[in-house]
Amino acid sequence: MMGRERFEQAVEPHIDAAYNLARWMLGDATAADDAVQDSCVKALEGIGGLRRADGRQWLLAIVRNVCRDLLRGKKREGVAFEPELHDREALRSDQSPDPEALRMRLEDRATLARALEALPAEYREILILREMEELSYKELANVLDVPMGTVMSRLARARERMRVLLQGGER
Amino acid sequence: MNCGEATLLIGAYADAELDAARSVEVEGHAAACANCARELEEIRMLRAALREPGLYFTAPSRLRAGLAAKPKPIRRVMTFVLLAAAVVAMIVTAGIFAVRERNEATVVAELEAGHVRSLMAEHLLDVKSSDQHTVKPWFTGKLDFSPEVVDFAGDGFPLAGGRLEYVGGRAVAALVYMRNRHVVNVYEWPGTGPDWETSHDGFNFIAWSTGGMTYRAVSDLNRAELSALVRLMSRR
User: Fold this and answer.
1) Which residue in the set B47, B49, B64 is minimally distant from A15, CB to CB?
2) What is the interface pTM, i.e. ipTM, of the complex?
């Protein structure tokens, strides 16, 4: 099969998923545009060697790597930085006194978006892929190139961090 | 199940990644524990909030248009066509092997995932018994075949139990054997296929077929000992 056809079948249906991921990871429409263009060129170049039967996982993995490289570059320039990640971080912090407060913050889209943007990249990408794209653990393991156990623990920490951010700040 | 265990599994439960037996345990615990019930509720609230369409960025039409126009196939005709014809023949042959290899790679990944999952959740035994006469009937009605189940305690591989797994898109029997502190998962379903052995991520895999059934053994056990179990199983 020609690369172009394969591209149209396997990759193009997932452009929205690619753009949504890039847009949330980079926080900027122009940068997301460029990242998706770049990813599609990479996808097309590699199309002959398409390893994964699933075009969506494959494209998301490329987008994710492109975004990660861009974010790393930014970090070096000091434009943006992220809190260091600690694997030993507790899985569960103290329960908040008021679950209703959390519900209200979740319903306020601007607050929710700010919390998601404030999340470290590693946590943001796994939450987007899990909750917005509904990838299974196995698909997440493929896209993020980590073992299943890491998927489980990273997701747990991402959710916990999100809860803390929504409740008004770092511990 | 206590809170410590539940905390580890609640996310996987909310994500529908646990097997039936573990799901029931988590549900049972959450029904009795306000903290864990709340944690589950919070995961679901966060999910519902993140799935609001207003948060999803769809690709702008200019991006789509740009992509449709951009990557062009090569159109340098005659030499290309001649070359292509020769290459196609090679690719077709290679492709057949590549497809087989990819299927096998997928299966290895699935087997490994199943094995790792069974270790993470402390066994994931749907039926916990060293008695082959308990384990075998347990599978009846859950599978469309009757698996061979034999205990090899006398040979140093006691049967610990079994569970259902999905491999290559079908329900298969997973038998769990112990060897000292090591866990061996043996997947079994009707069929035949080539024998093979491989290692991946520190796990050993052995595939074989006998008596109309095909088997895959997965373990961190060394290859010699795993082969010993395979020999016992293929002898019957």
Assistant:
1) B64
2) 0.84
